[in-house]
Specification:
Strand order of the largest sheet: 11-10-9-5-2-1-13-12
Strand content: 15-25%
Radius of gyration: 23 Å
Number of strands: 21
Oligomer: single chain
Largest sheet: 8 strands, parallel
Bound molecules: alpha-D-glucopyranose
Structural class: alpha/beta
């Protein structure tokens, strides 16, 4: 498999509202991100050492869904700065060898987008067909039984009083769905992609990439549905793959290995794998199963083994433990497991995606009712980055848009000089990954272990790295192969470099070990 930055590198997701505020309005911005790039990669072991950033939306938006409701795809919302700020961020990142992919939100616009404003102005407006319109089924009843993804929204249809028809929206009513059966919509989004590719971005994270195309006849969904996602007639239709192939061609028409990673909301991995196509669709596709596993070694192993079995030769996996839509990993599993989780994410075969703050073990923050701002309960995992112990953790000089977490205990500055900290573990493991072809692109092989231990080998010609993850609170033993070995890295840094008997490797509670034969 050809070496490429997005296969071998480590991604870091930034939620721009919450990374760093530069102008004191309490909301993070692009200039703030630029000012903090040295934390991510300054070329020395003091920094985290990531290779690429995924930026959640910073486009013009009324912020009904905090940027996932776009009213202008080719401009920066004043809250986040200007296009000039974006260019500076991109240039500064590239100067440090950091790539940037931006969030593409093709499924829906804001209801304030000029396209929707035109579309709702009359049934005969030329932009009418940019969206999905339908008549009431019966007086006062929506056209069918489709539900929005946000539970509190209910029906995916809202009546537009002015023109007397319903429009489709799989998220908020303020996020009308674009009509992807309309070639003009496809062309308009091509233009958006070209705009950012021409500006120099390295690719896209594609929002709701498995939605987009809905049943043409708008038939009801069957009553029994898969939990969490709407049913078959408005999700994961075969025709959506045509759009992904179109995007791949567009990406490939640029030089410099531009790529896209799709948000694929398909639980069944056998269906999911189809999004890799014949190496002619999006290069990566998010596997979200780690976000749903309880802390049980066998469960994680089962996900990895199934994915490894299903992926065709050309396809490359990726894994993630947290994002802006889900509880943080350190909260789901408990902070004492964050080290094992980190070593797993960084050593499996596949591209890791780290969510900002994960590197210091940030946890979900309890939000008092009067400060709740998200309709879908996602504020706790979106609180501001915790840099130091100064006012508001160094995030803002103003009033932070969400409450701050426990930054007195958990912050970058305190962890930077502590060799036993989670941040130090992340820095060690990222450096090791960078220096090891086996970890970056080697094969994956499960190694049998006792209950509660997930063990595997990563191998390339001439190098083999063994990984042992203890998911339990007990001491464990794993047997790899005969012969003496060495500890490359442990969650307990004091063990780095120790000799080890690979026949009988001792694992402490909540410990992860990387080993190599001597
Ligand atoms: C995706 C995003 C989520 C957003 C939704 C609507 O699932 O990750 O944050 O609310 O799409 O755009």
């Amino acid at each position: 498999m050809r070496e490429t930055w997005w296969r071998e590198g480590v991604f870091y997701q930034i939620y721009p509202r919450s990374f760093q505020d530069s102008n004191g309005d309490g909301v993070g911005d692009l200039a703030g991100i630029t000012a903090r790039l040295d934390h991510l990669n300054d070329g020395t072991p003091r920094s985290l050492g990531i290779d690429a950033i995924w930026l959640s939306p910073f486009y013009r938006s009324p912020m009904a869904d905090f940027g996932y409701d776009v009213s202008d795809y080719t401009d920066v919302d004043p809250t986040f700065g200007s296009l000039g700020d974006f260019d500076r961020l991109l240039a500064e990142a590239h100067r440090r060898g950091i790539r940037i992919i931006v969030d593409l939100v093709p499924g829906h616009t804001s209801d304030r987008h000029p396209w929707f404003q035109a579309a709702r102005s009359s049934r005969s407006d030329p932009k009418r067909d940019f969206y999905v319109w339908a008549d009431a089924r019966r007086e006062g009843r929506p056209p069918n039984n489709w539900r929005a993804v946000f539970r509190r929204v209910g029906s995916a249809w809202t009546l537009d009083e002015g023109t007397g028809q319903y429009y489709l929206h799989h998220f908020l009513p303020e996020q009308p769905d674009l009509n992807w059966r309309n070639e003009k919509v496809r062309e308009a989004i091509d233009d958006v992609m070209r705009f950012w590719l021409d500006r120099g971005v390295d690719g896209f994270r594609v929002d709701v990439a498995s939605g987009l195309i809905r049943d043409e006849r708008l038939r009801d969904n069957p009553r029994i549905q898969v939990r969490g996602w709407p049913g078959r007639r408005n999700w994961d239709l075969d025709e959506v793959h045509d759009i992904h192939r179109r995007w791949r061609k567009l990406l490939d028409s640029y030089d410099g290995d531009r790529m896209a990673v799709g948000e694929i909301g398909v639980r069944n991995l056998r269906r999911h794998v189809r999004y890799y196509g014949n190496d002619d669709e999006l290069q990566l596709s998010f596997n979200f199963h780690f976000l749903e596993q309880p802390w049980i070694a066998e469960r994680f192993r089962a996900v990895v083994e199934e994915w490894e079995r299903l992926l065709p030769e050309h396809a490359w996996p990726d894994y993630t433990l947290s994002n802006h839509d889900r509880r943080r990993a350190a909260s789901r599993y408990g902070p004492e497991r964050a080290g094992v989780a980190a070593v797993m994410l960084m050593t499996l075969r596949g591209t890791p995606f780290i969510y900002y703050g994960e590197e210091i073990g940030m946890t979900d923050v309890t939000i008092p009712p009067e400060r709740v701002v998200d309709i879908d309960g996602r504020d706790p995992e979106r609180t501001p980055m915790q840099w130091d112990t100064s006012r508001n953790a160094g995030f803002t000089t103003g009033q932070p848009w969400l409450p701050m977490g426990d930054f007195g205990r958990t912050n970058v500055a305190a962890q930077r000089d502590d060799p036993a900290s989670l941040f130090s573990l992340y820095r060690r493991i990222l450096r090791l990954r960078k220096s090891s072809p086996a970890l970056r692109r080697g094969s994956y092989r499960t190694v049998p272990g006792p209950r509660g231990v997930f063990a595997y080998a990563r191998e390339v010609e001439g190098e083999s790295v063994l990984v042992a993850l203890n998911f339990t609170k007990d001491s464990q033993h794993v047997s790899f192969e005969t012969g003496p070995g060495r500890v490359l890295l442990s969650t307990d840094h004091a063990r780095d470099g120790e000799d080890a008997d690979l026949q009988r490797v001792a694992l402490r509670p909540d410990e992860a070990l990387l080993l190599r034969a001597r």
